[in-house]
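Question (not urgent): is this output format expected?
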Amino acid sequence: MILQIDAGNSRIKWRVLDGTAAVFQGNQPTASVLAGEPLRLPAVAGLRLAQLSSVAGDTVVANLSRQLREQYRIDLHVAKVSAQVGAVSCGYSVPEKLGVDRWMAVLAVFQKTGRASVVVDAGSAVTIDLITEDGVHHGGYIVPGIKLLQQSLWKGTDQVKVDQLACTNMLGPGVSTDEAVTRGCTLMLVALIERLAAEHSADLIITGGDALLLKPQLATQVDYYADLVLDGLSVEGVSYGLGAD
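Got this back:
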């Protein structure tokens, strides 16, 4: 049994693999682990390895490492960005500066498709990475996600308040402040994604917490994968270090 963890800025996702099949999975707010709560794992017999992709900071890594040593007597293996994994080369001049979640997603996409791709991870921030059919990562783009765009309006105005996202047709003008903000923020991201997909004539792949909100709005063919970052942890050749508590 292998435990794989994706610690993002807002949420932590995890799954337990038996071979290639996920037998348990779950998620919880990253803030809960930052506050010292354990990862909410079931009793898993035979857990032999734990792998982590984290952009959530050292405290999360330390807390997870401590829990796994105490609960399962295993070390936490923390994924790192490297210059090359198999046929895939990192586009950053200093690979360590690339977010490990982006690297895991790129590796997973290339393993799945072996094609030129625009890889979109729609989370708290939206990251967009470009990879060629030869496995050359050309870097990418980072912009605020939908909720961060909304929050910028909350902080900058007295009257614009939006409580939730709505997955509807975003092309029609909003007839309430909620609709106007949600549709405007969503279409800003849609326009960026569609422009890059057209510019690079590549497959469009999307993942992340807001992926299913964005996907229906895109006018181009897009493939959705729920767990690209976790999938990247399984790619042969990924570099790992040991988490410390």
